[in-house]
Write a structure and sequence with these properties.
The chain is about 35% helix and about 35% strand. It has about 350 residues and is α+β, with helices and mostly antiparallel strands. Strand 13 and strand 14 (about 250-255) form a beta hairpin. Helix 4 packs across helix 5 (about 100-115). The model is unreliable at about 1-5, about 55-65, about 90-100 and about 110-125 (pLDDT under 50).
């Protein structure tokens, strides 16, 4: 790959985004520059495109399922590995690649994407499933331009081929912040298990676990209703909708948590909050354990606005505000009394 030798994993990820029509404008330019840099680059891109087209045709004609597809791919990889092993030959270079080597490249591409925290699975109904890693914040742009910010440990799915006609997103688990693209022809909606959120031009936070589903509206309006019933609540800016899975209850309240989006923007507001509560919130957002030492700190309360991308900066401000010491011990932050 001329001029891109050290960025193969990045280029492969851009090709996948382009084929699935989820590539950003900036990345589209980078991909076009790469394709134009060398005829071999364009040839490789067209091979990926050919594989995508052929797989789509096979799935339409034979309704191949994901398990069978991966079984076939595994057989091809085993045959390729056996061939090179028996003949004591190295894997051929990119510019002289054979068809088996191309399958190895595709498998490597999926492996690279999975290590980056992404999981893509293509089923016969052409749904796209995206899984973030346990410590990865991910940005996804849907085919209509709707922008999603996915928290770590989040899974979503949507229809690859029919999304523009039916703008439905499924939150399988986790948390996401949604900025909906305007479209008067089709209302954006999110499926959260037994309830569905319908957007009326808005920005909102959604979360789902085995116990409850929630919608917190930052801007605009959302209608949250329970499947199979007439029960629904209308949520405006500053409102929180909660659906209790076990008790089948649906309610709307004023959002009590000013830090509901802190996982995304690292912006916190604390008003006479107990220090233990503050540290638990920070630890959850930054995914780092924070300890507190000394009886004197248990009664301390914090009133402050914090916005720091790095946890140590936020803790330094807290330590100065509450007249205590910040210590790093074995990879753990500790606040201790002086």
């Amino acid at each position: 790959m001329k001029n891109f030798e050290t960025n193969e994993s990045f280029i492969f990820s851009l090709i996948i985004e382009d084929l699935e029509e989820k590539i950003s404008a900036e990345n589209k330019i980078i991909l076009l520059q790469w394709r134009n840099a060398d005829p071999e680059n364009e040839k490789l891109y067209q091979e990926f495109l050919g594989v995508q087209i052929n797989l789509d045709k096979l799935m339409e004609r034979h309704e191949l399922d994901a398990h069978h597809s991966w079984t076939v791919l595994e057989e091809k990889l085993n045959q390729s590995a056996s061939f090179f092993s028996q003949h004591n030959e190295p894997v051929p270079p990119l510019k002289n690649k054979t068809l088996p080597y191309f399958w190895i490249k595709i498998a490597a591409m999926f492996l690279i994407l999975s290590t980056l925290g992404y999981g893509y699975f293509f089923w016969k109904n052409k749904d796209v499933v995206i899984n973030t890693g346990t410590a990865v914040l991910t940005n996804v742009v849907l085919p209509d331009g709707t922008d999603l910010k996915l928290n770590a440990g989040t899974s979503i799915s949507y229809s690859k081929n029919n999304f523009l006609a039916d703008r439905k997103l499924v939150l399988i688990k986790g948390e996401a912040f949604v900025q909906v693209a305007a479209n008067t022809a089709s209302r954006f909606r999110v499926e959260l298990g037994d309830v569905q959120a319908k957007d009326i031009g808005t920005r909102f936070n959604i979360s789902r676990n085995e116990n409850q589903s929630t919608v917190t509206v930052e801007e605009g309006q959302v209608e949250l209703w329970e499947y199979g019933t007439e029960r629904k609540v209308n949520l405006t800016a500053g409102k929180l909708g909660i659906y209790d899975v076990r008790n089948k209850t649906l309610m709307a309240i004023d959002n009590p948590d000013p830090n509901f989006k802190a996982w995304l923007d690292k912006s916190f507001v604390f008003n006479a909050a107990p220090l233990q509560e503050v540290l638990e919130k920070l630890g959850s957002v930054y995914q780092i354990k924070i300890e507190m030492e000394g009886q004197v700190l248990k009664d301390r309360k914090l009133t402050a606005k914090l916005k720091y991308q790095q946890l140590d900066s936020a803790l330094a401000v807290i330590a100065a505000s509450l007249d205590c010491k910040l210590i790093q011990r074995n990879g753990t932050f500790v606040l201790a009394g002086k």
